[in-house]
Structure formats: C-alpha cells, structure tokens
Amino acid sequence: MWETILSFHRLRDRRDVRLFGEWRTETRSRLNGETRLLGALIPARGYFPDFLTPAEGQYGWDVGLDALRGLRPERLRRELLLVGAGAGTGFGAAFGTPTPTRLREFIDGGTKHLPRLLGELRGYHRAAVEPYWSHIQAQIEAERAARGRALLDGGADELLASLPPMLRWRAPVLECEYPVDRDVRLRGRGLLLQPSFFCRRTAVTLHDPELPPVLVYPAAAQLASTTAGGEAARPAEEQRQRTLGKLVGHTRSVVLRAIGDGATTSELARRAGVSLASASQHACVMREAGLVTTLRHGNAVLHTVTPLGAALLKGGAVVS
C-alpha cells in the first residue's frame, strides 16, 4: 500500500529522471482507468489520508484493501477534512482554501464512494506497481539484509546508525529530515522501520499520533542505483530476457546458492571456493540478470538473492 501511494507522488514528479523516467512513461501508457479521485486525495505535496496505508497492508495487497473497505465513516470524514485543510502541517493547502470539488463530494458522500476509490487503487496498482514488483521487492530485501546484518553486528544502536543519511541516530532520538517540525513519541509502542523503493529524500510517517508508529524511508539500494547510474525499475520479464543468457555453468549455480541470506564478496568467495575476483565477476553477471541485488554495507559490499534468484534455486533451474 505504501509503495502504491508513494509511487503516485513519483508519477507526478519530474525529478529523478534516470531512476523513474522510463517507469513514468510506461505507467502512463498503461493508465487507461480513472485516477481523478486518487489525485484529489493525494496532493502533490503534503498530507494524504492515513487510511490509504493501513497497517494491515503489511500482510498483503488484498488484506490492505479489505481494511480500507471496512473504514469507519467518522475516520474517513476526519481524514478527508484534513486533506482539504492541508492537515495544518505547514505546507500544501492552507486553511480557508476552497476544497476541490471531487474531495468535497467524497466528504459529503462518505463511505458510498469507497468502492470507486478501491477500483481506482486496483487499476493504478496494476499499471504502476505490479509489473515492477519483483524489482521493488529485490531492493527492499537487500535493504532488510543490510539492516539485519547491522543489528546482528552491533545491536539496535548499530542498526539505527546504519540507516540512510536523512536519518540520524542521536540516542535516544532518531532525527529525520522532514518537511515540517514534528515530534513522534513512541510511548513504548516500538517503531516499524519500513524501507521503500518509491520514497524519496525525506522519511514519511503517519499523521495520527494514536496509530502504530511507522517510519517509511528510502531504501539504500534504490539510492545507490541512482548515484551509480543503475537502471530504473523495469518489468522483471524484460530485464531477465536481456541478460539471463549469460547465466550458465555449474560455478555460478554454486555461487548463487552460496549467497544464502546475504554475503559479502569475500564471504561469497570463501563459501563457493573461488577467488575474490571470480566471486565479484559472477555476482556482477547475476546482478545484471536480476538474480542478485548488491548493497554497500560499511566498507564491504553485501549481496542478496532476489525473488527471481530464489525461485530459480528452488526450482533447480540454475544448473550446468
């Protein structure tokens, strides 16, 4: 749900052409459905309703839609009014600004407009996110592997200190670059750290302080792909067909299996019984084929297997 909503921001943003330009072109060509209601609910800048990213979405797209379908009328109206007022957050629409017609119709109509919203969300998700899901998931899994390694190496302090530069750990406070000045107090509830492919520049959190605390932040692998001139998100099938032909031979099968839950280049060389240069070369080819994602972790480079790579291993498709 978060990726879908944040991608709607990226679709209307003209920046980051190297990473998102081709995705924007392809997505717009597939968007034959209606998105005007989404456009009213998700302004180019500022607050969008918390109900669009329910906590249940962590269990899957359909579960998230079911949670949205069961939204209480009073919460729907409250958050829609915040959209119309700019949420009082210091940016976006100002109080007293006329509410857009479509948004006013939704406020007045209440939950009877939810089926239309669900239809727009499904159509947009199919066009903008679903074709690229394997690529997005690979970036997120690489991020999770890197943060998990930091947690194992140095505990929570090391984990929080290893987050991207827009997040700064100064115990006991995690400082974030954010459009407005705001404090989020956990009150013993913990914090869900959620890396995102479509999140850019600043972290995102929920507006309602009573909801479970969540901090969505740009995945480091996605940031690295921008600075390194990496490809934008592409449909997995197209990317695989371009380079999968290079992936043959017993050694690469062994190297792919040796990555396991994540391995640095030196660990990979040791596990697979190959030289450091050979491990680096094989990892590079498999990365081009969409089977491996690489993320810098401190002074080392961490390789993780993508969903496609895992599927090939599970099916025994990588053989000599």
Automatic annotation (TrEMBL):
It holds the Pfam family HTH_20. InterPro entries: ArsR-like_HTH, HTH_ArsR_DNA-bd_dom, Metal_resp_trans_reg, WH-like_DNA-bd_sf, WH_DNA-bd_sf. One of its GO terms (molecular function) is DNA binding. This is Helix-turn-helix domain protein. Keywords: DNA-binding, Transcription, Transcription regulation. The keyword Hydrolase does not apply. PANTHER family: ARSENICAL RESISTANCE OPERON REPRESSOR ARSR-RELATED (PTHR43132), HTH-TYPE TRANSCRIPTIONAL REGULATOR KMTR (PTHR43132:SF8). CDD domains: HTH_ARSR (cd00090). Residues 242-313 form the HTH arsR-type domain.
